[in-house]
Amino acid sequence: MRVALLGPTTVEADDGTPVDIGGARVRMLLARLALDPGRPVPTTTLIDDLWGEQPPADASNALQSLVSRLRKVCPDVTLEPGGYRLAIAPDDVDVHRFERLRAAGRLDEALELWRGDALADVREAPFAQSAAARLDEARLSAEEERFTSGEPDIAALTAMHEKHPLRERLAGLLMRALCAQSRQSDALRVYEGVRRRLADELGVDPSHELRDVHVAALRGELTPRPSVDRLPVRLTSFVGRDEELAQITGQLGHARLVTLVGPGGAGKTRLATEVAARHPLHAKGRVWFAALAGVRAPEDLVGAVLSAFDVAFGGDPLRRGAEGMNRIAEVLGAGESLLVLDNCEHLIGAAAEFAGDLLRRVPNLRVIATSREPLAIDGESLCPVGPLSVPNGQADVSGFGSVRLFLDRANAVKPGFRLDESTVDEVRQICRRLDGMPLALELAAARLRSMTIRQITERLDDRFRLLTSGSRTALPRQRTLRAVVEWSWDLLTEEERQLARRLSVFPAGADLAAIEQVCHEDALYVLTSLVEKSIVDVTEHDEPRYRMLETIRVYAAEQLDASGEKREVVDRFRQYYRALAGRWEPLTRTTRQLEAIGMFDAEQDNIAAALRGALDDRDAALAADLVGGTFWYWLVKGDNERAELSVRDVLALGSDLPADLAASFRAMHLIMTAIPGAPETVQAADVIEDCVRTGATQKYPALSIALPMLAFLSQNRELARREVARASASEDAWARAAADWALSFILVDEGDLDGAEVARDRAYEQFMAVGDRWGSAMTLGMKAAFVSHTGDNQAAIDLYQRGLDVALELRSQDDAVQQQWRLAVEYARAGDHESAAREVAEAEQYVRDVGNDQMSLMVGYAKAEVRLRAGHAAEARELSTRFKESATISAVFGSYVAEWSAILDARIALEEGDLAEAEARAAVAIGMTSDRGDMPDLATVTELLAHIRHRQGRDSAARLLALAQVIRGRLDLGDPDVRRLVAELGEPGQLTIGKAEALRELREEAGISTG
C-alpha cells in the first residue's frame, strides 16, 4: 500500500484502490508511523506524539485500541520489541519519495507529489507541527533549488518572493535572475524592499549572503556569463540509473570520496558525469573531470590531472610532480570543488595515493572516482555499478532499465523502433543475454542500422564479432565488446587469470566448495581479488555464490580453450555435478526437500551444462547419472518438458546405457509422452517387465509411482495392482506412500470411493511422515476434488488452499497453478464468484511473473468456466475461442484440447439456450473421454448430458443421472447444476448394471458407435 502525507492523509492499496482510514486519531497514528516506515516506533513516543501532555488515563490501552482500529484497514502495522512498526518501504510514503527525488535532483517530480499543506488534516497532533514545519521548509527549499538550474523564471520567482518576502535566499535568486536579464535596477529594488521589511518586522539587517548579492549587483558582477562545463560532452540521453544517482548524491553529502566500482561497460563514466553535471557546484564552474584511461605510467598521473585544468603552468608538469600537485591543490582550494577521476583501475596504487594526498590538502574538495576496483583508502564510500535491471519472465518489460536503454538507443539509429508483440521477445532476450550491461546494449542497438532485431538475437552466441559498432569518438577500448573485456583481463595477475578462465565452466556461478573442487583447491583469496576487480560478482545466499557476467564468461572460456587445460577442468566440473546430483536426489523426497530444491534451483544451469557435454561426448553413464539425479526435481518443479527431452536424449545413446537405467528411463519417457492420452497396453506392459527384470524397481523410488500409473493409464488393471503391491512391500517409506497414492486412482476408477479415500488418507499421512510436500500437495488436491463431490464445497476449498500453500512453498509452477485454478472453480461452484475472480486474477499474475505460457492456457480455461458460472456466457465463449486457438499449437495438452473444449462449449451453448449445439459438443466429449477410459471425467460429462436432456424435455435425463452414479460411484453434488437437477428429478435409483454396460448405454444415448 501507499501512504500520502503531503496534503490530507490518504492511503491506497497496491492496485490503487483508496482505503478509508477512519477517524482523526487513527489518521494521526497512521501519519506518525508513516514518518518512520519500516522502523518500530516506541509506544512511549507514540503516546507523547498523539496526546502530548494530556494522555488518557490508560494510555497504553488507548494506543492499543487505536492500533487495532488501524489494523482493520491497514494490516501492515505490526508489534515488535521496539514498538509498533508500519511494515512498508520508505518509497511507499510520499514524504520519503519526495526526499529521495529531491536528493537525486529530480525536483519537478518531487514537487508534483505535494497536494496541499503537509499533514493538513492531522496538524492538531502534538508531533505534527514540527514535522509539518520541517516538510514545508523542505518544500520551499526544493522550489528554491529548482530555480538554481535552467533558465530563470522571473515571473515564478517574483510570485514566490511576494508570498515569502522574508526568505533571503529566494530574494537573492530573484536578484540574480533580474541581473541576468540586465534588470539591475529592479534587482536593487528587491534588495531594498527586503532590507526595509527585515528592519520593520524583525529589527535585523539582511544576511551576509544577501548583502554579497547586493554588492555584486551594484558592481555589475551578475551580468550573464556562460557557465564553465569541463565535463565530457553528453550526446545521448541518460537512462536507467535513478537509484544510483540518488545514492551517490546522498553519499557525497557525508563522504568526500565516492568510488563507482563495477565491470567494464557498466556505464560508470557516464554515471559519474551525470552526477557531476547535476551537482550544485557545476553551475558555479567548480567541477573538473580528469580522464585517466590514456595514462600509462603512474608518474604521469599528476600531469594528466593538471591538463584537465584551464590554468597556465610553467615548466614540464610531468617532471615536476610536486609542483604540479601544489598547483592542483591551489586551484581546487579556491572554493568548494568536485573532481572526477575517471578510469583509475590500471593506476590503482597511484590513483589511491593521489586522491588521499589531495583530500588531505584540500578540505573543501570532494572526489568521484570510477574504477573496476576500490581505491581502498580511508574515508572512501563505494557505489557498486552493476548491470541494469533485466526482465525475468515478466509480461510487461517496459519498465526495466536495460529495456529502456536499449529502446532509447534503438530509436536513435532506427526511428520508429518500438516495443510490441513483434519485438518484445527479442528485446527481452538481448537484455538478458547481455546481462543488462549498458555498453553491450548500446553496441547491440547500433547494429539495428544494418540488421533486424531477430538477426541480432540469432548472433548473440558470437557476441564479440557482433558487437563491434561503437562510436568512432569513443576510446579504443570502448568501441568493441572484446576490447572492453580485454582491458580488464590484462590488468589481472597470472594466478587471477588462471582461476578466472577456469571459472568459465560454471554458467550459473558456484559456491566456494564447487570452485575449490573444480578450479583450485585454495581459491578463496584469489577469488576475492577477482571480486574486487569486478571480474566476478558475489551474491549472498546461505553460502556466497560467485558468478561472472555472461560476456566475461564467454571471453574467459576462450582463454580456457587456448590454455590447453580445458579437458581436465571440464571433466572435474562434470564429475562434481554428477556426485552432487546423486547426493541430493534422495533428499528431494524427505524433510530436507526444500533445501534440496534450493540447491537444484541454484545449480540447474551447471547440471544442464554437464549433461549437454556428456551427451555430446556420448558418455552414457555420466549422462544417465545426471538425468537420474535431477529427474525428480524437474517433476516437482513442473519442468516436464526438460525432463522428457533429457530422458529422450539419454535413451538415444542406445546400447551404451546400463540396462536398469535404460528400462527406468523408458518407463519415464512412456508415461510422460502418454499424458495426455493412454499408452498402448502391450508396450506399457513390456516396459514395466523390463524394469522388474533389470532390478530397476529396487534402485529407483520414482518407479513406485510411475509403474502403477503407467499400467493404470494403459487400462491394465491387473498389472497396476501388481505394481502397487510391489511398491507397498518396499523398504522405502516414500515408495509405500506412492503405492497408496496410485491405489487411490485404481479404486476411484473401480467405483470404490470409500476405499479410495482410505488409500488417499494413508498416502497423505505417509508423505507427511517422510516430509514430501509434493506428494502431500498432490494428495490434498485429489482429496479436495472428491470431497467436493459430496457437496461440501467449503471443505474442498480449504483443502485446495492447503495444497496451494504447499505448492507455492515448493515453488512448483505447474502444481501451484493447477491448485489455484481448481480453487477458483471451486469458489465458483460454491457461488462465491468474487473469490473465484480473485483467485483467477492471482493465478494470471503468477503465470505472468514466472513466464509460463502453458500454464497461462490452463488459467484461461479455468477463467472461462468461472465467468460462465457467474452468468457471463459471451465472455466465456470468447475465452474458450482463445483457449482453442492457443492450445492447439501446444503439444503439452494433446487430445485434451478437443475434449476440454467440447465440454466447455457444451456448457456455454447450454447456458445460451442452443441445445442442439450443446448436445453435439457433449457427444464429442463423451466419445473422447470414454476412449481414454477416465471414469471420473466421464461421469462429469454424463451429468452434463443429463442436464441437456432435461432442458430438451426428454425422459432420459433421470436415467443419465443414474448412469453417472454407476460410472463414478456417486453424483457430483458439489456442482450446483447437478444439485438443481436432482432437486427437480429426484434422487436417481440405484442401477444393478456394471460400468461396461453403463458405458455402452451412455454411448448409445450420445449417438456414438459402441463397436
From TrEMBL:
Q: Which residues bind DNA?
A: 1-88
- A Pfam family annotated for this chain is BTAD
Keyword annotations from UniProtKB, A to Z: DNA-binding
**PANTHER family xref list:** HTH-TYPE TRANSCRIPTIONAL REGULATOR RV0890C-RELATED, REGULATOR-RELATED
Give the matching SUPFAM superfamilies: C-terminal effector domain of the bipartite response regulators (SSF46894), P-loop containing nucleoside triphosphate hydrolases (SSF52540), TPR-like (SSF48452)
Q: What is this protein called?
A: BTAD domain-containing putative transcriptional regulator
Q: Which residues form the OmpR/PhoB-type domain?
A: 1-88
Does the keyword DNA-binding belong to this entry? Answer: yes
